[in-house]
Amino acid sequence: MGDANGNSALAGQRQPQQQARRAGGLTDPVPYAAALAWTDAQAVPSEAELVPLADAPGRVLAAPAVAAGDMPGFDRAGIDGIALAAEATVGASAYNPLRFRLVPAGSSLPPDSAARVAAGDALPAGADAVIPPDALDGAAGCEIVEPVAPGSGVERRAGQAAAGATLLAAGRRLRAADIGLLAVAGIERVPVVGRPLLRVLLTGASAGVPDADGPLLRGLIERDGGVPADIRPLARDREALAAALAAPGADIILVAGGTGRGGDDHAAAALAEAGELAIHGVALYPAETAGMGRSRAGTPVFLLPGAPASCLWAYEMLAGRAVRRMAGRAAALPWRRREMTLRLKLVSRIGTTEICPVRSIDDDSVEPTASFAEAGLVAAARADGVVIVAEGSEGFAAGARVTVHLQGAEP
Amino acid sequence: MGDANGNSALAGQRQPQQQARRAGGLTDPVPYAAALAWTDAQAVPSEAELVPLADAPGRVLAAPAVAAGDMPGFDRAGIDGIALAAEATVGASAYNPLRFRLVPAGSSLPPDSAARVAAGDALPAGADAVIPPDALDGAAGCEIVEPVAPGSGVERRAGQAAAGATLLAAGRRLRAADIGLLAVAGIERVPVVGRPLLRVLLTGASAGVPDADGPLLRGLIERDGGVPADIRPLARDREALAAALAAPGADIILVAGGTGRGGDDHAAAALAEAGELAIHGVALYPAETAGMGRSRAGTPVFLLPGAPASCLWAYEMLAGRAVRRMAGRAAALPWRRREMTLRLKLVSRIGTTEICPVRSIDDDSVEPTASFAEAGLVAAARADGVVIVAEGSEGFAAGARVTVHLQGAEP
């Protein structure tokens, strides 16, 4: 830990801070767009894995799902009813009712006979139409009073999809109906984009203050398709942090706390020492002290401010984007966007991308509400959405149309 | 199993069908609104349970979450910087710079001294303002060249919420930021609406055809906040079905298959025998053969057609509504709705509520696509949403504005 000058611990501790400053540290925050570009360059979709259908809802298809055979694989009844040969009904009318004798389904139809079928049953040989059961006349037979068109009431082989057709495209996030479709197609396991494993190191907790960043980040990571595999508190100890950054087993590492100005930047210092601190300080409010870089093994590391509302937004705008991309999801914020009218003016600092909470006034308009600085996560709970004011903007006048990200509303 | 007339098995088997017909069976389908009203009358939110925060994302709060104490509980630094007494800066100017000596944080401030603090730290006694660290002048002190306002850079006790304030209302579906807020408030376990337990009996499978209703229903139940506790195939055997309907342990029972016309209605027959078949046959396309009733113990039972696309829509429009209500969620279909322009006409049978798949043409318009009858679940996969055409409507002309339920897009 010492150096040749005998200027031991102090020199060893100062170096990382200097490195951080050189790398564009807190004294000169980078624009949000630059932090975004760095993030997107790190995160590519994870390798595919095969999972059984029961585990596939919500996962992202890594390859197209293709019909192995025709769907359906044979002509079958499309309705519950009576299967018969359409040709045998030619000439039927109220004046010339034709009588068909009921035979058991499954066997082939003798002339002038019909068989009861349920929707989905294979047609008996010789049948090419299914009529509703209203024509039934007791248990023994039925009377037909108008001609039946060939193919009516029948689901044709390959009518849903022919062998080789794409059923679901790669990149689709699987919903329940898709899972049903894969089952219909006889597919039991599907290739999906792997879920990135996250290590979360909580270094910001103060004695007597409950940790909020852990529960917060766990929920966010799960929402975005990542696995919060390893969430743990860690002392504000640069060596312990460096060891946790270097340990294998994570696809993304998040460090909460220790990103501050001056005295409270142990996370930045540790990353500079144990890997590369690429960015420290982003012109993004309320997450100005966020940072990012790579462990020595190349794992992306995001430094999130410890204050919960700042931690939330550093995650949503930067780290979460990496999680979503690795999980094969859309990188954008996972909420619905809508143009709405701003009822009161919204002021924003020029030079900083600002996340401004807003509250719905009615179905088409919003007003600014208590900021994250004033109200922390209470602001998030009370807001219906946020407006993201770009770096070059001073905000919006009352009456402006703005894009509102409606939180809690997945797109 | 016999009766006094010696007309044993046959009489025993016929009776349930007759009961079904009397109760409004397939020959006389009830309007969708009536089936809906029956469903809503069965399903009330489940009893609350206390869960740890880690299990709470996505759950529905059963009671308001209230701040036990002030948030924050003390005046604290709102920024990283230097804490001092504002009063001591009166008169500071570029011509009259005032010098403050740095002392360790935590102790109370002697006159003309200041302390470094990180955002979130309690203010040292005597300090009532925090200024950015730019004023620092080496490690020993700082120079102030303008007066500081009391309270600047400080987060006041109770500034986010006062003790007793409601943080989150009952009925809120908890998102990650809410979980963080609960943690900030020191809440470790929250009361949430219980998840209804579902038993799913699969009676429709044909030999050689893979079961799709099981995987489909599992995904739908999980999406809606239910627990697919018991999903199992069951032979088309009325006695086995009656036993499975009577067994305790489920809040809702779904039976897939055996709802058809005439010969293939073993599910309806079993329910009539083992409880009450309230409705069999709903004027809802593609789920006309759906049914519902109660087991003898009073558990709501939904009979879903076996054909996967019909099973899907009987679930979405009826059974799923009961699951969502019991889980404390909104009863409506869990997708986003939007008014869009229909580019081609859409024809619907009068007298039936029809679910019509549509495909997006552009951001504001849709056109009808292959129906569920033609393409089964392939239709669901290829559609971007559905239009629900009410019973009294014959459909819509090209150019009409229609409400599109955008599937896969949670609201």
Can you describe what's shown?
The structure is a homodimer of 411-residue chains. In chain A, α4 (213-223) runs parallel beside α7 (308-326) and α5 (238-246) crosses α6 (266-274). The first copy, chain A, contains 8 helices and 26 strands. In chain A, the strands form 7 sheets. The first copy, chain A, has a 6-stranded mixed β-sheet, with no helix packed on it. A 6-stranded mixed β-sheet of chain A has the order 14-13-15-19-18-16, sandwiched between helices. The first copy, chain A, has 411 residues and is of the alpha+beta class. The longest helix of chain A is centred in the C-terminal third of the chain and has 19 residues, at 308-326. Chains A and B meet through α3, α4, α7 and α8 of A and α3, α4, α7 and α8 of B.
